[in-house]
Specification:
Elements (H helix, E strand, L loop, with lengths): L1 H20 L4 H10 L4 H22 L1 H5 L5 H20 L3 H35 L1 H24 L4 H11 L5 H26 L4 H22 L4 H24 L1
């Protein structure tokens, strides 16, 4: 039992660090929960509960950057809650084998969006500036995209940080510290509503999840302080490389 608890705690610390700095920490915590015997869908729901503390502590660490951000914080949170609820409902009504098969495809989408989102953002900016009608259309697109991103997080928490960063790139953000703060705010909102739905369904392993959560709480806050001094291009390259590697791993694990 002590060995299992130690493994879960260390995985939580590492996951909290990675979630705060770049996203993708669930690639450590989610497989670890499965490794100690938690079924896939329950492991995913438990992982959402576990990493939420890291999201919250990380968002608090970026509170000054969020205060300077011009994004509509309240509407961002509300759309994130809606999307997260949709995703959590879909997860609980998806057969386990279909859930497992969907994982690598969801990760591939998140990776591609992050790597090529800047080009899409440039085209959308040009379109938005071309006419008032285009501005209304692109605004509606960004709302729909945020709800979709949040639904992804409610359905499958692993990779949520990466896909939220991708959404922010497409939306035209460039300051990596503000992006990290918004990423953690959206991730917190998605996770809190999903946890509520999972708890009502009895889909969370509270004991194992609490151990991982304690680790993410420690790792998330520490990383938020350290990442502010990191070069922005280093963080972007790290996200790209880690997301490609993890996508490849899940394709191999599911289909090999």
């Amino acid at each position: 039992m002590l060995v299992e608890l130690s493994i879960l705690f260390v995985a939580g610390v590492l996951g909290g660090v990675i979630n705060t700095v770049a996203g993708g920490g669930s690639f450590i915590t989610f497989p670890t929960l499965m490794f100690v015997g938690v079924p896939p869908i329950v492991a995913n729901a438990t992982n959402t509960f576990s990493v939420c503390a890291g999201y919250l502590s990380g968002a608090y660490g970026f509170r000054h950057d969020l205060a300077e951000c011009k994004a509509p914080i309240v509407s961002t949170v509300l759309w994130s809650l809606l999307g997260g609820a949709i995703g959590a409902y879909l997860l609980l009504n998806t057969p386990e084998h279909l859930f497992i098969e969907s994982i690598p495809w969801l990760l591939m989408f998140a990776t591609a969006l992050f790597m090529f989102g800047d080009k899409l953002a440039s085209r959308l900016t040009t379109l938005r500036e071309s006419s008032p009608k285009a501005t209304a259309l692109t605004s509606a697109f960004f709302v729909l995209l945020l709800v979709s991103v949040s639904a992804y997080g409610g359905f499958f928490n692993a990779g949520l940080g990466i896909i939220v960063l991708s959404y922010l790139v497409v939306s035209g953000y460039s300051d990596i510290n503000q992006m990290n703060g918004l990423k953690l705010l959206v991730s917190s909102s998605v996770s809190l509503i999903a946890i509520t739905i999972f708890a009502l369904d009895g889909a969370i392993d509270w004991w194992r999840g609490a151990v991982v959560m304690l680790g993410t709480l420690v790792g998330g806050y520490v990383a938020a302080r350290v990442s502010r001094s990191m070069p922005q291009h280093f963080i972007r390259h790290f996200v790209s490389l880690s997301s490609v590697a993890m996508t490849g791993y899940f394709f191999w694990d599911v289909y090999a």
